[in-house]
Amino acid sequence: MVDLKGQYEKIRDDVNAAILKVIQEAHFINGPSVANFEKALGGYLGNTEVISCANGTDALQIAMMALDLNPGDEVIVPAFTYVATAEVIGLLRLTPVLVDVDPHTFNISLDQIERAISPKTRAIVPVHLFGQCADMEPLMKIAERHNLYVIEDTAQAIGAQYTFSDGTIRTAGTIGHIGCTSFFPSKNLGCYGDGGALFSSDTELAAKIRMIANHGQQKKYVHKYIGVNSRLDTVQAAILDIKLRHLDSYTRSRREAAYLYDHLLADIAGISVPKRSENSTHVFHQYTIQVKGGKRDSLKSYLESLAIPCMIYYPIPLNKQEAYSSMGRFVGELDVTEELCSSVLSLPMHTEITTHQVEFIAGHIRKYLTA
User: Fold this and answer.
1) Beta strand ranges found along 146-203 (DSSP E)
2) Helices and strands counted in the chain (H then E)
3) Which of 188, 224, 284, 291 pairs as cysteine with 254 (C-beta 3.0–4.6 A)?
4) Half-sphere exposure of residue 32, counting CA atoms within 13 Å on the CB side?
5) Region class of 309: left (phi > 0), else alpha (psi between -120 and 50), else beta
């Protein structure tokens, strides 16, 4: 699905030098590379505060802790997402409220958000799924009307840009009250281990987030908040600082591959290629097609028999996961989520994928579905 080794080979000298410098300086925790990377990423995102942490799941948990959400408070999340989004809600004894998603973009449905709001609702977590933003302008208006917090889960969409009706452009993760991301190796901006970060343009909130991520302390041994121990280690920060310089070129490579997939798959009956949002650019963390007519699983098996990797993100909706089936509320029938779980298939998508590889994959999809 990804070619991390091929990507590394192109930047190996810079990466190796950065790692060696950290080792030579022996400043492995909160070394200079951490602050340097946070500043560089903040500039890339549009001059926002960046607080790095150990992983994307921690980022979501820290965000909810920083907003003082209390046990029993309701948090609205899409049912079609990775489990981490709901996991931290459960860990903090909050109540997840699962809503359906848009059938075209797979992002959270605005109509369902309105239906889901109750007197206990405190926050909304839009997940910018597969690489493009949820429809943030009307979502933020809903949140403002109901005095709700918005925590953006931008683990799959770092670098995507959202355009407001007045022409203003904002980067994914910088629109809500807090943005969260992951630097898992396969992400568009990934390190060589685990890592994550939070974003906020509110300086007071950012300072609180930074304290919570560091045992609730601003000054050593003086603890203002109950916190956690969640740090991005210096080696990973040094690697990310190098890779951030290449993020725009990585995005261009992904988009070129996506457009080629579009061209080669668009006329095949039973296939739906990814729809693009009118308001957001797409950075293609995943290239996810829909396979109709109940042929998704057999197509997956056929591709795998040819050593073509493919994945189902996600095969089981959150409301049918044993851990969450009796927790919280579900709004509506979640019909779109159910349909997506039975029809989506993600194809290889990464910075090193070649025209020949895309043609090979698309050719075999065509062969199987038109036989």
Assistant:
1) 149-153, 161-163, 169-171, 178-182, 196-200
2) 12, 15
3) 284
4) 8
5) beta
Domains of the chain: 4-100+107-244 (3.40.640.10), 247-370 (3.90.1150.10)
Cα–Cα distances (Å) from 189 to 47, 48, 67, 195, 338, in that order, read 18, 17, 26, 10, 30
DSSP states of 28-91: -SS-HHHHHHHHHHHHHHTS-EEEEES-HHHHHHHHHHHTT--TT-EEEEESSS-THHHHHHHH
Measured in whole angstroms, how far is the alpha carbon of residue 310 from the centre of its chain?
Answer: 19
Instruction: Determine how many CB atoms are found less than 10 A away from the CB of residue 196.
Output: 26
Residue type at position 23: I
Tell me the whole-structure pTM to 2 decimals: 0.97
- Residue 56: closest CA among 195, 191, 214, 190: 195
Average pLDDT per consecutive 10 residues, the chain (371 residues; last block may be shorter): 97 98 96 98 97 98 98 97 95 96 97 96 98 98 98 98 98 98 98 98 98 96 97 98 98 98 96 97 98 97 98 96 88 94 98 98 97 82
Tokens found for residue 138:
């009307």
